[in-house]
Amino acid sequence: MWERTLQDLIRGLRANKADESKFIAKAIEEIRQEVKSDDMVLKSGAILKLTYLDMMGYDMSWASFHVVEVMSSPKLHLKSVGYLAATQSFDQDTDVLMLTTNLLKKDLTSSPTDIALTLNGISHILTPDLARDLSPELIKMLTHSRPDIRKRAVLVLYKVVSMYPEVSSQVISRLKDKLEDPDSGVIAATVNVLCELTRHNPENYLALAPPLFHLMTTSSNNWMLIKIIKLFGTLTPYEPRLVKKLQPPITDLISTTPAISLLYECVHTCIIGGMLQGSSGDSLARTCVSKLAGFIQDSDQNLKYIALLAMVKIVPSHPHLVAQYQDTILASVSDQDISIRMRALDLVSAMVDETNLQSIVQQLLSHLVTDTSTSTLPTAAQSLAHHTVPTSPQSAKPSFPSPSASPAYRLTLSQRILQMCSQNTYENVTNFEWYLSVLVDLAHIANVDIGAQIRDQMVDVVGRVKAARRYAVKLMFTLLSEDAILRNAPEEGSCSEVLWAAAFICGEYCSELVDPQKLLPLILQPEVVNLSPDIIAVYIQAATKVFGFWATEVAQRWTDDDLHEVKGIVQMIIERVGPFVSSPHIEVQERAANTLQLFSFILADLNAYRPRMTENALDESSASFAESTFSAEPFFPKSLFLIHPLFSSYELNPVAQYAQESVPVPEGLDLDAWIVPPRLEPMENGDKKEGGKGKKKQQEENGNGYNEDELVTLTPQEAEVETEEERVERERRRAERLERLRDDPYYIMDKIPRNHLRSSSYQSSPEPFYIDRVGEMPTGAISAHVSGSSPSSRRSTPVPGSPSPVPTRLSSGLSSSISSFPQYEVTDEDSHPNTPSTPEPVKVQSKKKKMTGSGSGSGKKKRTKTAAAVLSS
Amino acid sequence: MIHAVLIFNTSGVPRLTKFYTPVHLSVQTLVQKIFSLVYSRPAGLCNFLDAPELEPYLAQNEEGERWRVVYRSYATLYFVFVIDGAESELGILDLIQVFVESLDRAFENVCELDLVHHILAEIIQGGLVLETNVDEIDNAVQVTAKLRKDSYAASNPLALGGGLAPRGSNLQTPLGWLTGKLTGVGAR
């Protein structure tokens, strides 16, 4: 092993560019040896190399202890390496920091250079504990004879206060003194710290206003003035009287200072400090806005940027002033610099109103359009362009694409358009037909993943704005008949989600369509399968609705010539929906199955339908019978009226946000009452497990489930009626079963007192509202709560008397017992030896599980017998 | 306050990364993200980096105000400061200039690779500005550098050079290592 210095390491890195990771792995291996050395020089050299590598992204937390060793070196040149490494690599969780308290205390009493080094280091590595332990020493440093130490001590106190707020009042009063320090650097540092502290809780610092005000009016240090002005911007909202006091000097500064940064801060503080209110503020506001407008028009892009930043803040209070510069601001939205575009976008969103919404949105859309025309060209052209770029002369410099080409920017832009239009429930939209067409345009040109938001907007608009429905349906019909989006649906940025909205709107409001049946071939075309399942489900549903509406229309003006067309369409629907019945997506499958059944029924009816004429002719022989039927039968196939009422009974309206909450609880309904009371003591004692089984079975056999439950709850009340014989019989059966199950690994014998079980069951289902919440909780959370070991345990945790059987039904309904059963064995057997005395929820469940699985037959029989016995008695 | 100071070259290799506030994501990812965005910006744009791609990386306060990325490029180096609303945007641009001038002054007579850190420590401490006067900074840098050198010499009486570079007779200076050339200080 030969020692390399950091220079050697860097040289080596350059020489080994091709195999950098290997070289570094080797270097770190050497360093691992070197840090263990007793030679402090070697050790610190190693730490320095590590610090460099840490910057390159290689972990050095393993060397923390060695860093502390180097920090403790008495030699400055080594110590500073240690402190540097600490500031670079330590964080709050670095455990060796606990060991540093005394070292830091000692270094704080050393030479001024050491103290400076230490203070700088402490600013990085301070923890709450260190802050508590070191605060006396650090506060003492404020009176050090050397200003450079005082300066650092002031700054370190910011960290102390944020880590250990208990000292803040003490620190604040000391800092106030420091505002009168003889050294201007110390004063500036104090202002810096106060500016930070004030942002967290301004009320505590109002007392500092007078000295700060004095400084503001006397100092000429622009760095410090900026901070003081900023500080006042935070304070004034908490002390309105400051406004009056500050207005004159700040107005003065605005008109006199040559420093643009200071001027800008003054303007900014006027805005955020609420100094532009009232009559006196008006002229100041005008000055501010005109200054900012000047910045926006300045050739310096930086001024443009910050001016936009400040303008956003003044818009809410003085929109009319900003509106004067609308054109300039709108031009900034098209700036080549994305930073400026983003800020201009902020500003534009803030200043949008009824009058300018359309023009602004139109302009933003045009950004998306122009660029789409190039970026959606065949990808071949794009890749060609890619190939040509490197060979061109400027290949050394990267080509700078227009910001509009960046997907992230396009997404932001699209979101902004939606947000501008929809804010405060479409406050600024005057023409919803326009907005709907904007939404459709956006879906076409956005080329980013914004489809879901557009979809929601479409549905929302159409739901809320009745007057727009006719237009919407027409527009959506067009959307559904275009195949571009459908074809591109699987691609990212295709916005195919809008088809969801289109299908829903056309289906729900199909009465607005002239020829609704023309929609059916569109939404049932075979390519629909490319869409995502939730859209397919809506398509199927829409098809049903559209048919339902059209069928009633046809029925009302029925002529027997229609039969052919109707039959054709019904057959088409059956044929197209058919394949979806086997869809792997449950929602699609269910809707398809429903639809299929309904339409099979209709088709059967249509097939059975005999046109009136024929019927009359045929039925002449049995005229009396025919007459009676004829008068009851309509003259069109009845089934045409089958579907429409399913959808049209209620109008679909937007629901107010708090509608559900304001529904009163009906009189006589006690939400806290037990639906199924927990079983009482005798039954509990009598047979705990049977209860569980009964529950399980109840879910399996929907039919007599309720009886079972009644039995469970009724039993105790009827206990007196239970004859001695029956009791003996029951006891005997119980003993028998216990005997039988003794060696069954899935049963835990009741060595644990009963109330264990009971208490656990009470815990899992104490009150109705808790169970309500169960329904909403993610599965993981509950199962983790009940039992960490078995993921599906919740499903099989039907607590006796639990009024929420849904989870259980799930498990048995999905007939999961076979497939999931082996898992149970495994988890359970695992838990047996490890946790012999754990209380029982898991095990009780597994028993039940077992019963549903292989042993369910006997259990069920027994249960039924008991039921019969009790009921008969 | 200032949350981070980064220097990287035009290849994206970090020359200095200093975080005053811990970030809860990979520092490398952040540096690379900032680099790729800064590097793709042509000259003449503003010195503030705003991009939708960057937003998830930057912390946000209660009022929705995000950290801001301010950068300047000098020759082959990018100087990037990540700040919050307590700092003046334009002031930070000046501070970067102060930093670069201080580095430039130290150019002549030092050869410690960690010097950049030491110079930064004379300007910023714990994310707060310590000193903005280039002369003061330079003075402090010189004094502590000399003390480190003395300390080194005292424990290595036979060494010729200074600092931690015993075999550094014809070493590059730190700024040579840093940038190759730092003559174009006026550059953006």
Notes on the protein architecture:
The complex is a heterodimer of chains A (873) and B (188). Chain A is an all-alpha fold and 873 residues long. Among the domains of chain A are: 1-89, no CATH class; 97-200, Leucine-rich Repeat Variant (Alpha Horseshoe); 430-617 and 630-641; 684-872, no CATH class. Chain A is 68% helix and 0% strand. Chain A has 46 helices and no strands. In chain A, α19 crosses α20, α30 packs parallel to α32 (586-608) and α44 packs antiparallel against α45. The longest helix of chain A is centred in the middle third of the chain and has 24 residues, at 533-556. The termini of chain A are far apart. The model of chain A is unreliable at 371-398, 614-631, 683-719 and 752-873 (pLDDT under 50). Chain B has 2 domains: 1-87, Beta-Lactamase (2-Layer Sandwich), CATH 3.30.450.60; 96-166, 2-Layer Sandwich (Beta-Lactamase). Helices cover 36% and strands 18% of the residues of chain B. Chain B has helices at 27-39, 89-106, 115-123, 134-155, 174-179; strands at residues 2-9, 14-19, 48-49, 68-74, 77-83, 124-125, 128-129. In chain B, a hairpin with a 2-residue loop joins β6 (124-125) and β7 (128-129). Chain B starts with a strand and ends in a 9-residue tail after the last helix. The relative contact order of chain B is 0.16. The chains are: A mainly alpha (873), B alpha+beta (188). Chains A and B meet through α1, α3, α5, α7 and α9 of A and β2, α1, β3, α2 and α3 of B. Chain B: One of its GO terms (cellular component) is endomembrane system. Chain B: Residues 1-145 form the AP complex mu/sigma subunit domain.
Beta strand % of chain A: under 5%
Q: Could you tell me the number of beta strands of chain A?
A: 0
Total helix count of chain A? Answer: 46
Q: What is the name of the CATH class of the largest domain in chain B?
A: Alpha Beta
Subcellular location (chain B): Endomembrane system
Organism (chain B): Gymnopus androsaceus JB14
Keywords (chain B): Membrane, Protein transport, Transport
Pfam family, one (chain B): Clat_adaptor_s
